[in-house]
Design goal:
The protein has 155 residues and is of the alpha+beta class. It contains 3 helices and 7 strands. Strands 6-3-5-4-7 form a 5-stranded mixed β-sheet. Strands 1-2 form a two-stranded antiparallel sheet. A hairpin with a 3-residue loop joins strand 4 and strand 5.
Length: 155
């Protein structure tokens, strides 16, 4: 995974350069987070992801077909809602931590835009919550409604 960070050029002025660095997780201060070249042991957890995208209007049939192809290619997708200029994708991601789940989610649309023939929309929203938080929200009645029916549906 790669993250881009802007830093001022050491020669001064307004020129900027992109510095590439690997994404890493921040430890909790209790011995986690690496150290001495050792990779900490982490169990994977489930994260509920809601990815929102939008852009210029596209024919509804093409948007639906692209989302159906994405769901076929990646059966982890729970549900997608769409209109001609925006869509929302909800799914469960298995990842070590929130950082990893978010990184995967932020790559999903761009990496599969070509193979699923998705519209050239941009990501405009991302929510990643752990399983316990998701179920607590639903139980309290203020979280996202359960993803039923599963599949690709218009708004």
């Amino acid at each position: 995974m790669v993250n881009c960070e802007r830093r001022a050029d050491t020669r001064g002025g307004d020129r900027r350069r992109l510095v590439r660095r690997a994404l890493t997780s921040v430890g909790t201060g209790d011995g986690e987070g690496g150290g001495h070249g050792q990779e900490p042991e982490h169990d994977s957890r489930l994260w509920h992801v809601t990815l929102s995208v939008s852009g210029k209007p596209a024919p509804l049939s093409e948007v639906r077909r692209g989302l159906e192809q994405l769901a076929h290619d990646h059966p982890f997708l729970l549900t997608s809602r769409y209109a001609d200029d925006h869509a929302e994708i909800r799914y469960w991601e298995e990842a070590r931590d929130l950082h990893d789940a978010a990184a995967v989610a932020l790559r999903l649309w761009g990496e599969h835009r070509s193979s699923a023939q998705l519209p050239p929309w941009e990501i405009v929203g991302l929510e990643v919550i752990d399983r316990a938080t998701y179920h607590q929200r639903v139980a309290e009645g203020y979280g996202p409604p359960p993803a039923h029916p599963v599949g690709v549906h218009p708004y």
